[in-house]
Every structure is written in C-alpha cells, then in structure tokens.
Design brief:
This protein is an alpha/beta fold. It is 20% helix and 31% strand. The chain has a single domain, classed as Dihydrofolate Reductase, subunit A (3-Layer(aba) Sandwich). The chain has 5 helices and 12 strands. The strands form 3 sheets. An 8-stranded mixed sheet has the order 7-6-5-8-3-9-12-11, sandwiched between helices. Bound molecules: NADP nicotinamide-adenine-dinucleotide phosphate. NADP nicotinamide-adenine-dinucleotide phosphate binds next to strand 3, strand 4, strand 5, helix 2 and helix 4.
Length: 187
C-alpha cells in the first residue's frame, strides 16, 4: 500500500504527494515553445529572467533530477537551495546515478518534492513510467509547464501530446499551467 504525505505547495497551494513506499513519486517542470521545443544547441533558446525566477520559486528546497547535458548546460552549478541530482552513465561523482530508477529508489523516503527538470530523455522516461503495483514504481504526479509563444527551431522536445491521456489541468496562471496525473494502480 502506498503512503502519501499531504503537504501543500507554497506557490500553487496544491497538495504535494510524497510516496514513501518503494520508489519516490515526482513532479516535472518544463518551459516549451509552440512546438513543444525545450532547447537548441545545448541551450534554452529564449532568455526569460521571469521564467528563471518562477523555476526557482517552484523548485526551491526540493530535489532536482536532471540529465547530464542539462547539468553541463547550467551557467551556475549547482542550482542553489536545491539538492542537485544528475543521471548519467558516463559521469562519476556524488549525486550522480546511472538511471532514474536508482535516483528514485535512493530518495524514496525523502519528504522533499522531487522534480525532473530535463532534458528530453528524462522527460520522456518520466512521462512514460507506469504504476506497476508489484514494483510500486514512482510515477510523475505533477507537471508544471510554462508555454512561450513563438517557434524557436528547437532540436529537443517535451512529449507534450503524451500528457493528454494521463494528466488533467488543475491550475493556470497566464502562460503557466499545472497538470496532475489521473488514474489508479497499474496506470
Ligand atoms: N526548456 C526547458 O525547460 C529545459 C529544461 C532542461 C533542459 N533544457 C534543454 O534541453 C537540452 C538538454 O537536454 P537533452 O535531452 O539533450 O539531454 P539531457 O536529458 O539533459 O541529458 C542526456 C544525458 O543524460 C543521461 N541520461 C538522461 N536520461 C537518462 C536515463 N533515463 N538513463 C540514463 N542516463 C540518462 C545520459 O548521460 P550519459 O551520456 O552521460 O550517459 C544522456 O546522454 C538543452 O538544450 C537544455 O538547455 C530545457
């Protein structure tokens, strides 16, 4: 049986579900353009101080999980006031895990909210995870999306179409939305 801690997020005032069973549940945060693009040539192709501020506000105090390229693309590392976790099969170091499963398993009893913060491969893996009751896999419960107008000719994307079936919009503030997962065990 899953055990949920009910904590409310400081900014959206929606509940944070922390699964204290076998693997941790998690959230995602992403900024996309009109085509679902998230990056180009290893960088985010728009420059929005306001969005960086929002990202910091939402993720402050949390555990942020990212792929190696995203880690390497950060102008200032680590991201302050957050536990930075990197997924990589090639890097070795503290807070580096060879798979998402390994990281979610390590943080399964941690009460902080866990965010996947990019890039494409981790977003895809995060969205496609299913709740397998026997394994009690962690799944993505919440997705914070900021949508920018315009097309930025991106070369990496967020799987935006895949969220329609499994997630429902629960909050919106201008171009920012929050989606929550629907469905039960086995979904
Ligand atoms: N718009 C946004 O919100 C946003 C957010 C984050 C990033 N970005 C952008 O996205 C781009 C980077 O994304 P990306 O897709 O190229 O790279 P990425 O996902 O950040 O990193 C890819 C690398 O991470 C490791 N990795 C990722 N998923 C893994 C998994 N499931 N299992 C094992 N290893 C895994 C592998 O490292 P090894 O090769 O070391 O094994 C892989 O080569 C940049 O342009 C960045 O600016 C945008």
């Amino acid at each position: 049986m899953c055990v949920y801690m009910h904590i409310t997020h400081q900014y959206t005032n929606t509940p944070i579900y922390t699964n204290t069973s076998k693997m941790a549940n998690f959230s995602m945060i992403v900024a996309i353009d009109e085509e679902g693009g998230i990056g180009k040539d290893g960088k985010i192709p728009w420059n929005s101080a306001e969005d960086l501020k929002y990202f910091s506000k939402i993720t402050r105090g949390s555990i942020v999980i990212m792929g190696r390229n995203t880690w390497e693309s950060l102008p200032q590392k680590p991201l302050k006031q957050r536990e930075n976790v990197i997924i990589s099969g090639t890097l070795i170091g503290e807070n580096v895990y060879p798979s998402l499963d390994d990281a979610l398993n390590f943080y399964k009893d941690d009460l902080r909210e866990i965010f996947i913060i990019g890039g494409q491969r981790l977003y895809e893996e995060g969205i496609r995870r299913r709740r397998r009751p026997s394994l009690r896999d962690g799944v993505c419960q919440k997705i914070y999306i900021t949508a920018f107008s315009g097309k930025y000719n991106c070369d990496v994307f967020f799987p935006i179409r895949e969220i329609e079936e499994k997630y429902v919009k629960v909050w919106q503030d201008g171009n920012r939305t929050l989606f929550e997962r629907i469905g039960g065990e086995g979904d």
